[in-house]
Amino acid sequence: MKKIFGALIILSLLALLISACAVGSNQATGPNPVHMDDSSFKLLSIDIKKGDKITLINDNAPVHIIANGTWGDNNTPKPGSETGAPKINNLQVDGFGSGSIGPFNTAGTFQIYCTVHPGMKLTVNVK
Ligand SMILES: [Cu+2]
Questions:
Q1: CA angle 27–30–34, rounded 5-degree value
Q2: What PROSITE patterns would the database entry show (predicted)?
Q3: CB 75 within 8 A of CB 40
Q4: Residues 23-54: tens digit of each pLDDT
Q5: Contact 108, 58 (CB under 8 A)
């Protein structure tokens, strides 16, 4: 009887371990990774070097559509790109997928946002 309980405990620990791996974040990677969940970037801003790219990594199922611009007061979309910003033409990042933005070849501060999710925005500081 004790052996059966022991086996059951080991089996349930294994199941826990496997499920923990399954719900872990997207393992994709690339230069300057920025993870995204259901409706937000997991960073408010990122500092990169001139000439660098950013890798957007979608940890969840919802699709994100990324463009130049930001969300203003009351979550009003504010499309627009700064001088020297790489053109981001509605880059679609599918569920559990990833995408690359850049290179950012000009020093400065650049805004990108997700056109789908109000408030989902990222500031890119290029030094
Ligand atoms: Cu989004």
A1: 75
A2: PROKAR_LIPOPROTEIN (PS51257)
A3: no
A4: 557 999 999 999 999 999 999 999 999 999 99
A5: no
Q: How far is the CA of 40 from the centre of ligand 1 (A)?
A: 6
Q: What are phi and psi of 36, to 5 degrees?
A: -130, 140
Query: Ligand 1 centroid vs 85 CA: distance in angstroms?
Result: 20
**Which carries the bigger pLDDT value, residue 13 or residue 5?**
5
In DSSP notation, 37-64 reads -SSSBS-SEEEE-TT--EEEEE-SSS-E
Ion ligand 1: protein residues whose beta carbon lies under 5 Å: 64, 114, 116-117, 120
Q: Write the pLDDT tens digit of every residue in 67-103.
A: 999 999 999 999 999 999 999 999 999 999 999 999 9
* DSSP string of 72-98, one letter each residue: -GGG-EEE---TTPPP---EEE-TT-E
Token readout for 113 is 């946002």
Q: Which CATH number fits domain 26-126: 2.60.40.420, 2.60.120.620, 1.20.1290.10, 2.30.40.10?
A: 2.60.40.420
